[in-house]
Design a protein that fits this description.
Layout: E1 2-6, H1 22-43, E2 47-51, H2 61-72, E3 78-82, E4 104-106, E5 113-117, E6 122-126, E7 150-156, E8 176-180, E9 186-189, E10 193-195, E11 211-218, E12 221-228, E13 233-241, H3 247-258, E14 265-276, H4 283-287, E15 292-302, H5 305-311, H6 316-325, H7 330-347
């Protein structure tokens, strides 16, 4: 039995609001979802599992019609889905009354409920969120049922406020546990308990690869593989800073480094190193460069310690510098030296603005 497992698509989200690429990112998420449906058709998948948060918020009726049309286009694939904590079953949710195509099985119950799929000899167990939070351990220990050849759990959660669970408690009752909620993809137990991760990054802090899982269940067990979607990837890109570099040169260096990215990558530009204590970093200019979502300053001021010792001779500051300069561990001693001098200068009202 061949299946595809996705979660946390978050249709309707507009990532990085206000950025030039924001609208495109929202459209790309819809396109990625339709790409998965096309992949299900191409792979002749028997089952598509959607482990919650298909939508970022309560879906509009026209959006459900768009999704349903996509589902109807793959009639040979059984589709089972649940509501997560973002698209939970609000009392007025269109989920509650929407008429889905015959191959779609939406589990509306808030308690664990089976869906028997006789054609593919599979039972899928799942439940939906009825509120933004639900701290019940709804999955628990489950006795294996013998009504189908394959038993699958479809779940959403994993933290204290959203259907907490322990992965090792799920393997006895199910051949495969398909989860959503955490946006970082992971095999919690290889080939048995899998957190799909979000189909696409929905927030600029969703680092790393995103995509979907394709698996196959046989009498011998389950095997799954991850398939990345590369419409967007957030990365941390370091920009080395030295005391000699000017603000103008820093922008030029950043442009050179950013040019090395893949077209789908969006950067957190991380400034790291020691800067001239008097320089004002060009943070605004760097933030305006192409596909930079955030600038992070992790630099330290490069103080003229010899001059400071002469200027503050006989003071605690001079003694501190002399002591830390002799510190045997160069790395930690240097950091303590910079932090300490910065704190003392600030206390004296002479700290440098950065």
């Amino acid at each position: 039995m061949r299946f595809i497992h996705i979660a946390d698509v978050h249709l309707g989200v507009t990532p990085d609001a206000g950025m030039p690429w924001s609208e495109k990112r929202g459209k790309d998420i819809w396109n990625s979802f339709h790409m998965v449906l096309e992949e299900a058709r191409r792979q002749q998948a028997d089952l598509l599992l959607i482990a919650g948060d298909l939508f970022h918020r309560q879906p509009l009726k026209r959006e459900l019609k768009e999704v349903a049309a996509g589902f109807a286009a793959i009639p040979d694939t059984e589709i089972v889905l649940i509501a997560g904590n973002h698209d939970y079953l609000h009392p007025k949710s269109y989920y509650r009354t929407f008429a889905w195509p015959d191959n779609v099985h939406f589990i509306l119950n808030k308690d664990l409920t089976p869906v028997h799929l006789e054609r593919i000899h599979t039972t899928v167990w799942g439940c939906s969120f009825w509120d933004k939070e639900d701290d019940r351990a709804v999955y628990g220990k489950h006795q294996r049922q013998m009504d189908s050849e394959f038993q699958i759990l479809l779940g959403h959660g994993g933290d204290d406020r959203h259907h907490p669970f322990r992965a090792n408690e799920l393997t006895a009752g199910y051949d495969y546990a398909a989860f959503g909620h955490i946006h970082k993809a992971a095999q919690l137990i290889p080939n048995r308990v899998v957190m799909a991760g979000s189909l696409e990054p929905t927030d600029c802090n969703d680092f790393g690869p995103h995509g979907f899982w394709i698996g196959e269940l046989t009498e011998a067990g389950c095997r799954v593989s991850f398939y990345p979607i590369k419409k967007c990837e957030y990365i941390r890109q370091e920009l080395p800073v030295t005391p000699e570099i000017s603000a103008y040169a820093m922008v030029g260096l950043a442009q050179q480094e950013l040019a090395k990215r893949a077209p789908y990558q969006i950067s957190h530009l991380v400034l790291r190193g020691y800067r001239d204590a008097d320089i004002v970093l060009p943070v605004q200019e760097l933030a305006q460069l192409n596909r930079v979502v955030r600038v992070v300053d992790e630099t330290e001021p490069d103080y003229p310690f010899d001059q400071l010792k002469q200027r503050y001779d006989g003071t605690l500051l001079a003694q501190y510098i002399e002591t830390l300069e002799a510190y045997p561990d160069a790395a930690s001693g240097r950091k303590a030296l910079y932090y300490g001098v910065q704190a003392m200068l600030n206390a004296m009202g002479e700290g440098q603005e950065t």
